[in-house]
Amino acid sequence: MTRAEHTRSIVVPERVRLMAEQSSHETRQWLKDLPGLLAELEQAWELSIGQPLSGGSSAYVAPVKTCQRLCGHKDSYAEPAQTVRL
Q1: Model's pTM, two decimal places?
Q2: Which residue, among 66, 64, 46, has the nearest Cα to 74 in the 3D structure?
């Protein structure tokens, strides 16, 4: 299955979306690909990604539930993705 086939609806915080839209082609592509990327992560890692946290400007940060514990996921166009235990 391709990334597009996994796509789900997500809400990107307005500040993150605006910054990404005003940035480079690669960053605009990151924004476009983000729903599919999050869907792939949910499937591959058996995650449930919650609603995004507010306050950022260059990253999509959201709480993540696994079958075993609560984690957080940060996906930024400026640096590699990170998942941390909470």
Answers
A1: 0.69
A2: 64
